[in-house]
Design brief:
Blueprint: E1 3-9, H1 16-26, E2 30-36, E3 48-50, H2 55-61, E4 67-71, E5 85-89, H3 101-107, E6 110-111, H4 118-128, H5 132-143
Parallel strand pairs: 1-4, 1-5, 2-3, 2-4, 5-6
Length: about 140
């Protein structure tokens, strides 16, 4: 079973795709996936799945993956998913928040713009099986 990072946001245009791609560069054995309503945009995300695609389908699509980086808020509702890291990117204007964004924020291990708890960071580092330098790079990317 691959380790999993899920990137969710409060609204549109908060940097979810950019962060997913950046984490993909930092974690070379990872596969970046987008789940969404719209069509695939190969220049942004070649691994596109339609909304409501079950995690089991995504996981079975990448049998050799060590780490899946999934850009999707809806995937957090899948009972088969137990992510190793959930990152929440808030909207600059909370009135633009998507429905369910507060519930997704509550599931997050890391929230952009909020302080990172050192003990939580160490638990995440252990779950992701990355060294301290890589974890520092992940935190810097999440911070924006």
């Amino acid at each position: 079973m691959p380790r999993t990072i899920v990137i969710v946001g409060g609204g549109r245009n908060v940097g979810k795709t950019f962060l997913a791609q950046e984490l993909g560069r930092l974690l070379p054995r990872s596969t970046v996936i987008k789940i969404g309503l719209h069509h695939a945009r190969p220049e942004k995300n070649s691994n596109f799945f339609a909304l409501e695609t079950p995690y089991s389908v995504i996981e079975s699509s990448f049998p050799d993956a060590e780490l899946l980086i999934i850009e999707s808020g809806s995937i957090l509702d899948d009972p088969d998913l137990n992510p190793d890291l959930v990152v929440f990117l808030p909207s600059s204007d909370p009135t633009d928040d998507k429905p369910g964004s507060e519930r997704r924020r509550q599931r997050a291990h890391l929230v952009r713009g909020e302080p990172f708890d050192p003990s939580e960071v160490e638990r995440i580092r252990t779950r992701l099986a990355v060294d301290e330098q890589t974890m520092g790079s992940i935190l810097k990317a999440v911070s924006g």
